[in-house]
Amino acid sequence: MLIISLYISLQILIFFMRYKNRPNGFMHFMKYVLVPLTIAGGWTMYFIGYCRCEPEQIMTNGLLAVFSTARLFILGNDLIEIHPCVETDHLFMLWFSVFGASAAFISASILIHLFGKKLITWCKIRMDRSGETHIFFGVNMASLSLAKDLLKNKKSRLVIFVQKMDRNEDDSLYNEVEESGAFLISRESVMESLELEKEESILHTHKGGSDYIRSDDPSPRNLKKLGLISKVLNRTTHLYFLSGREEWNLGKSRSVLDEINSLSPGKPVTLHIRTTSPELEDVFHQSLPRLSPNVKINLINLSEIVSRQLICKFNPVDWIDKDIQKAAASKDFTVFVVGFGQTGSAVLKKLLEYGQFSGSEFNAVVVDKDLQTKKGRFEVCFPGLLSNYNIEFAETGPGRSAFYNLVKQHINKLDYLLLTMGNDYLNIQTATDIQQFLLKSTGKRIRILAQVKDNKNYDMLFETSKQVSVSIFGREKDIFTENIVVRGNLEKAARKIHDYYNSKKEDGSKRQSWSELSVIKQLSNISAANHIYTKLTLAGLTVDDVKQFATTEDFVNFLGHDRMENLAKEEHLRWNALHFANGWNTWELNEIPGNATSNKDEVRKLHACLVSWEDLTHVKERFKEDYYAYDYENVSNIFELIRDGIYG
Predict the structure, then answer these.
(1) What is the pLDDT of residues 254-291, one digit of tens each?
(2) Domains by residue range for the chain, with CATH
(3) How far is it, in rounded angstroms, from Cα 617 to Cα 426?
(4) C-beta separation of 228 from 256 below 8 A
(5) Tens-place pLDDT, residues 348-381
């Protein structure tokens, strides 16, 4: 009894000392300690028992002991075969009971590990009655950050993570998934789980330590396999493909999309797909089949959502000097961008879109140590930006004399200095160097913004109260949020804006539903909705202030002539900037065929209205349409959007 007690105590001690605090520690303890000891002990006891009955058949007894030991783990034993020989040996029966109990414990633990949690999770998902379903394919920091934000904003949501069974995933995130209130389910069905072909299983070991990635099922039955068909068909659903591997996101989402299209869902379904290559987005859209009316694709370009978060947190309207009595800026807005890769380009375009103010000009200085190649593509893709805005380019970089001379040259008019060089350490180090340089050189207020991808560091690195402040943007936990990625409330406001314009078309055949709109038209409406904050701030108003007015007329009367006109101008400036930033250019009136009835050529990305506020009158005369009215109405409609709870 003493030896048995010591044996059991030693195992408990090993567990608490080596495995208790390790991820998946209990399963590793069983895999590397308990199972080997139980197998060795069980075989020894059976071998001894068989040898007592048939001592001369050593080889046969050894093989029988192997078979009998295996039966221990399926809750059966061959004790009856040897019992007459050992029934009076209490020591033998005691040790046999220890190893039998150990095998039973292991078997029960495996069953609970494989099916217990899954069964509970399956039941909870089946019984869920919330109005929205959010399904994440794969687990990483981006998807976890977004899921936490979704649940924080609205608890009555069903959030499910589908584990990819991919060793590239971070196992430590699985616990965080369940702690957040989301459900974690396996991509495999119950029968596939029985194969135990995954790292968490006790008896399986990957050969050669190579990454283990299960190939995707080529048949489009992902949701059916997961038992989630009813959740997708009968409620608003969002599906997320946010892994760091673009090719996996595009391939897996296409497979799921084919399945959804075949089902014709009755509720809105949106697929959010993370991409890194802007040039692949058009190709992906072109390859798509005709989508069901309720199905929508939202491609999430990392650089684009970084730029959204920048505007959300550091909107130019909060920084620039403004005259709220006129709803206009009292100075120009100038930005200095260091690093002109995908993020630098996206940030410049977004700042240009939200840095348009009446009475102000937008200026930009762009530097990069490899500028010629990057500038060439920018010039080809966005010709309207270079011909309509003051953008200066210079091939240099931090650490060079020419770089600091350039900063010094523009120092008296700089507002934002952005560091988007693609390296956290380099961005932070450069921000610190420039801050010290500017503090010695100017008394002007300047905001330095450094892109940082790291989620854990740099939180309390800088003081924000200094004249030359340094702030960070672009972290995954900040950019993967509901407001930035999903933008549900913003899209509702955008749809309302579109509905208003639709109602103005007397010819019903020219009216389009939201799903029929081109990408640029949807973006334009979303941008208009997002720009409401800028307009309100310029006018010195908040959402609560607008709610105090009784009618649209009261709201317009409060704004008065000057503010109303300047806000309408700013709406036109924003609309221009959005189109230029998406590759559009001005369709000169003298180049438009005389018999043309449309003011745009969507194939060539040309639009006659991409002119100054003053020149818009010539377009109005040519096409006999009051384009000024659209900008004024976009301002006056702010009241209805707030009153009806669509915005704010």
Answers:
(1) 989 988 988 888 899 999 999 988 767 777 777 787 88
(2) 2-111 (no CATH), 129-203+216-293 (3.40.50.720), 307-480 (3.40.50.720), 487-643 (no CATH)
(3) 49
(4) no
(5) 999 999 999 999 999 999 999 999 888 888 999 9
Asked whether 358 and 569 are in contact (CB, 8 A), the reply is yes
Mean pLDDT of 512-539: 92
Instruction: Output the CA torsion 92→95→101→103 (10° steps).
Output: -100
Distance from C-alpha of 440 to C-alpha of 434, rounded to nearest angstrom: 10
Q: How far apart are CA 157 and CA 131, in angstroms?
A: 7
Q: Helix count (H) and strand count (E) of the chain?
A: 29, 17
At residue 417, what is the residue type?
L
DSSP assignment string, 292-341: PTTEEEEEEEHHHHHHHHHHHHS-GGGTS-EETTTTEESS-EEEEEE--S
Strand 158-163 with 446-451, pairing: unpaired
DSSP secondary structure letters along 23-82: TTHHHHHIIIIIHHHHHHHHHHHHHHHHHHHSTT-HHHHHHHHHHHHHHHTTT---HHHH
Strands (E), 479-519: none
Map residue 251 onto helix, strand or coil: helix
DSSP annotation of 480 reads S
pLDDT digits over 455-506, tens only?
A: 666 665 665 556 888 999 999 999 999 999 999 889 989 998 888 778 877 7
Nearest to 347, CA basis, from 282, 429, 420: 420
Judge contact between 220 and 261, C-beta under 8 A.
no
Question: Would you call 113 exposed, middle or buried from its count of C-beta atoms within 10 A (0-12, 13-18, 19+)?
Answer: middle
Q: What is the mean pLDDT of residues 599-607?
A: 94
Distance (Å, whole) CA 68 – CA 61: 10
User: Cα angle at 518 between 255 and 618, to 5 degrees?
Assistant: 165
* Distance between CA atoms of residues 611 and 591, nearest Å: 14
Residues near 602 by beta carbon (within 8 Å), at least 6 away in sequence? 518, 520
Question: What's the pTM value of the predicted model, to 2 decimals?
Answer: 0.78
Pairing of strands 362-367, 333-338: parallel
The predicted pLDDT at position 77 comes to: 74
Residue 191 CB burial class (10 angstroms; 0-12, 13-18, ≥19): exposed
Phi, psi of 411 (to 5 degrees): -60, -35
Using an 8 Å Cβ cutoff, are 362 and 390 in contact? yes
Q: Per-residue pLDDT tens for 511-524?
A: 888 888 888 999 99
Say what the alpha-carbon torsion angle 81, 86, 90, 91 is, to the nearest 10 degrees: -90
Side-chain-side CA neighbours of residue 247 (13 Å): 1
| Calpha distance 161→114 (Å, rounded) | 17
Asked whether the beta carbons of 298 and 274 are under 8 A apart, the reply is: no
